Amino acid sequence: MRVVFLGPPGVGKGTQASIFCRNNDFRHISTGELLRNALELDGEMGQKIRKFMEAGDLVPDDLMLGMIESALVDEQNGVVFDGFPRTEVQARGLDDLLEKRNERVDRVVLLIADEAEVIRRVLARGRSDDTLETVRHRFEVYDASTAPLIEYYRERGTLREVDGMGAISEIQERIHNALMDDGSANGRSAG
Ligand code: ADP
């Protein structure tokens, strides 16, 4: 099963994706993590990526799609994409990459939380790109570029909305239900 975790910065995608993947023996592909690892290599590419990330801007689509293509090589059971796709170009690119492998995005988990709670979580995390100014900008970028993917996946029948408020374990259970409880891994649920 190929799953996308969608939602605004700080909604808990990374936390929930890690736990879900550990419990279900899925591979966790976090583009935020891949990018932070690429920064450690430094060099010209690292500098370029750093500029986008520290400003809270999106790293260019072609670079992201290349990164995902190399990450797809040997996944096992299932894969959770966390923080990817973030634009419609990335979503179409992912569909194409998966189609070549005779795979598809089977499910999309949309995590939903109050804006105030999400901002609180991001600022508490204290990463170098987690200043109030950058966070505000990341939300604008999310609304403009990533939120349209909600409709993209809803039209394809793969979207599952999950309440992201409450205890980590409660949210985990909701995600588990959204992914494991409604029959076939392809196609729409009956209800
Ligand atoms: P958050 O959960 O707060 O959104 P991430 O670790 O997912 O944090 O992403 C941090 C930054 O990495 C983003 O603000 C963006 O600059 C960059 N980034 C991550 N994923 C992508 C992507 N799919 N496309 C473009 N940029 C990305």
Automatic annotation (TrEMBL):
What domain notes does the record hold?
A: Consists of three domains, a large central CORE domain and two small peripheral domains, NMPbind and LID, which undergo movements during catalysis. The LID domain closes over the site of phosphoryl transfer upon ATP binding. Assembling and dissambling the active center during each catalytic cycle provides an effective means to prevent ATP hydrolysis.
What's this protein's name?
A: Adenylate kinase
Q: Which CDD domains match?
A: ADK (cd01428)
Q: Which InterPro entries match?
A: Adenylat/UMP-CMP_kin, Adenylat_kinase_CS, P-loop_NTPase
Q: Which GO terms describe its molecular function?
A: AMP kinase activity; ATP binding
Instruction: Identify the main location.
Output: cytoplasm
The text of the family note is:
Belongs to the adenylate kinase family.
HAMAP family named among the record's database cross-references: Adenylate_kinase_Adk
Q: What does the entry list as the binding residues for ATP?
A: G10, V11, G12, K13, G14, T15, R125, G166
* The organism's place on the tree of life at top rank: Bacteria
| Any single GO CC term annotated in Swiss-Prot or TrEMBL for this entry | cytoplasm
Q: Which gene encodes it?
A: adk
This protein's pathway reads: Purine metabolism; AMP biosynthesis via salvage pathway; AMP from ADP: step 1/1
| EC number of this enzyme | 2.7.4.3
Please provide the Gene Ontology terms (biological process) for this protein. Answer: AMP salvage
**This protein's UniProt keywords:** ATP-binding, Cytoplasm, Kinase, Nucleotide biosynthesis, Nucleotide-binding, Transferase
